Amino acid sequence: MQVYLPIAEVSVNALMLLGLGGLVGILSGMFGVGGGFLITPLLFFVGIPPAVAVATSTNQIVASSVSGVLAHLKRKTVDLKMGSVLLAGGLVGTAVGVQVFAALARLGQVDLLVQLCYVVFLGVIGALMLVESLRAARRARRPGAPQPGPRKARGWLQMLPFKMRFRTSGLYISVIPPLLVGAFVGLLAAIMGVGGGFVMVPAMIYLLGMPTKVVVGTSLFQIIFVTGAATVMHATTNYSVDMILALLLILGGVIGAQVGTRIGVKMKAENLRILLALMVLLVCGRLALDLVLEPAELYSIAEARAGR
Amino acid sequence: MRGRLLALLVAVLGLGAPAGSETVVAGLSQEAISITANFEGSEILIFGAVRRDAPPPGAAPMEVIITVQGPSRPVTVRRKDRRFGIWVNTDLSEIDLAPTFYAVSTTGPLEAVLTQTEDLRHRVSVPRAIRAVGTGLIDQESFTEALVRIRTEGGAYQLNEGAVRFREETLFDTAVHLPAALTEGDYLTRIFLTRDGEVVDLFEQSIPVRKVGIERAIYTLAQERPLVYGLLSLVIAAAAGWAASALFRYIRS
């Protein structure tokens, strides 16, 4: 069943998009990740223009994050105050990111920027995750070995001004680090079309020293608003959000997420993380190959769109 | 007999345009093309007839060339080169106007049925339909060639030699396939009647291609009220996320 996407201006198979959303949904349900970092490159591979893929996947992330944060709010595992500080930084980062994106689109370098960001981030995160999960798997086989707890926030962080009390997280720290973390994640959301959870979650645990149980809910809370803002800004500056594409991805995604959660419960956590790490590295490798190998077609066409 | 003599006389003396004696009348199978949500491309049938006021002049066979042209847009063609070990867009060429869709269908090889001069005058062949002037690049040619190559691979540019068939002596028809990725606008159909590579008569008709229904609504909203459109996308996404979690909670309980 072909469907014509009004903004992307291409005709694609609706079932394939539903399947794509479903697949990413299953993975995000299994691993507890947003899946933006997988959906955007997959959309590139099926021929959606990169600008539309990035903008539309921010919209898709809103849907999956709303569904996740509701569960966390009910369990009271969202630090709203910390989330708001992260959000304030995030909005600034997103605004900058969307402008950078638009400027590079004019220069014809946006594909390169997006691909490079993906290769670098997926490579680093995938490698770290693989090493960490392999070590955890080895530890699990030798019981009795000490479990490393989350590190305490480092000394220099305590020296920064503008301290604030975050009751839910049990922290009394400067607002500067969370603002910077938020801004960085916002930048990534706008440029890469990801939620940024894969950067924010480790930063919250290791840099800010937040308790693990509030980390996921709080990051989801921030992601909703940052990706929401990114969607609106992409729609107004780049006219590149495709509603039909988003709807198909969301539909597949929410169903897939439920299935994925069931599968995830049945699997061992360490094995799950090794799998995820391998998958991240696989996507990274494919994108890196595209950059390094001589492309079959050296030329590309960018058409001035109507109405601009 | 007298008529043929007269025609010969006219041809020899070069008096009067030959256009008066043979004209082409034609029709299209569709009045308009609508891009709907499940648009998968379309096919237009073009049929026509040659009307003669006088018997056919000379011995040269009658040939027909049909072109279908979509709206033209400026296009930027970029070329990649290896920099620091990776492939990066380095050179670019702005092409002033290139049709988003262009199909040429003929009764025979294009060089045989149309002279270079006539091609230049009427901009019939694909390279002539593209307007690229004064970009200052030495190898402008290769950028234009790349544009034609990429669009030909995607089905946007077509050269269908021999696709126009004569049914009877003066009746002809052809079918032109329009791909799914169409740009909105008026698609101009031109039918050239040629003899000896010279254009004897020309018939033109345009066919509008429009997005309709939900496609139209979404596209217009996104272009004219981007803020409303962005917010609406958000509301839909949030509602879908909430509905999904509510639904699955209901199923589980």
TrEMBL record, chain A:
Its main location: membrane. GO terms for cellular component: plasma membrane. InterPro entries: TM_pro_TauE-like, TSUP/Inactive_protease-like. It is a multi-pass membrane protein. The chain crosses the membrane at residues 12-39, 85-106, 112-131, 164-181, 187-207, 214-233, 239-260, 272-289. It comes from the Bacteria. It is found in: Cell membrane; Membrane. Signal peptide: none annotated. Keywords: Cell membrane, Membrane, Transmembrane, Transmembrane helix. Pfam families: TauE (PF01925). Belongs to the 4-toluene sulfonate uptake permease (TSUP) (TC 2.A.102) family. This is Probable membrane transporter protein.
Automatic annotation (TrEMBL), chain B:
Keywords: Membrane, Signal, Transmembrane, Transmembrane helix. Residues 1-19 form the signal peptide. The chain crosses the membrane at residues 227-248. InterPro entries: CHP02186-rel_TM. This is TIGR02186 family protein. It comes from Roseicyclus persicicus.
